[in-house]
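Pilot study result, target chain (313 residues):
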Amino acid sequence: MHVVFVGGGGTVGSTAAYSLACERPDVEISLCDVDGDAAWGHATDLRHARCHAGHALGTASVAGEVSSVEPGPAAVAGADCVVVTASVPRPPAGGERGGRDTYWPANGELADEIAGWLAETDPCPVLAVTNPVDRVLARLHEGTGWPRERFVGYSLSETARVADAIARRLDVDPATVECPVLGEHGEHIVPAFSRATVGGSPLDLSADARQAVTEYARSIPYDVIQKRGGTDSSRWVTGRGTALIVEALLGAEPAGPVCLSTPLAGEYGIEDVALGVPVVLSAAGVERIVEWDLAPAEREALETAARAVAEAT
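Predicted structure:
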């Protein structure tokens, strides 16, 4: 299996590639980046990380190669999965609340270029991580002409952050918290509190507590950026989440449902926009979109998110 990280020389791309390399030592990984030196350096370091299997403390065999590749159509030819993390440099306001929007339309133009590469090869699952994710994913879909089922956009960080906020508020193990997050990968997130559980039992939070959890998920990534410094990001949660999605896309059996962005064509009454909804993943991409019964307020928030993404495109 061969996974190509377009933007693999950057912070998020290299972190996601590292997570995947450790979890799946059998997978071939290629890092593609306009900064060829950075891509080569990360690829070499990742290859060495896998070689820890070669001593008494190692636990895994190594079958997959790790390499860097030059940008262009040849970089993605024959890939089993393409992960797009490439981005223009962070704009001045990119590290502030709502900063994902400042990357548009520059990252949209970058997506058009990458879509041109993809259009020259056979369809495979494409995972967009580049911000603003929902709009970038739609541009990749439009630019390739591939079936929409091949495209998913990253949004698992919100689900992880919501689980953390609920677990800390209730003093429980976050592994027992399940609260899926639909909507935009940005300000218009839609935590599905009506479907949330803790230890298998329905979640009971006041309206104020729900609002506090939602605001935490919206603001905490920018707090992380401010504390780490303007050139860094919340790369660990994104890198790990990205690797988990890739592993599901490489799997033989469908996995999910999990909330990820995908182009919609009437599901939830929404068309012509990519948005986070529950999907079942397989080696082909999106096996199917699951339409949950949401609370009226959640349904309204999802429709608001769709309008916001459409108007910003």
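One observation from the pilot: The radius of gyration is 19 Å. A full batch analysis is planned for the follow-on phase.
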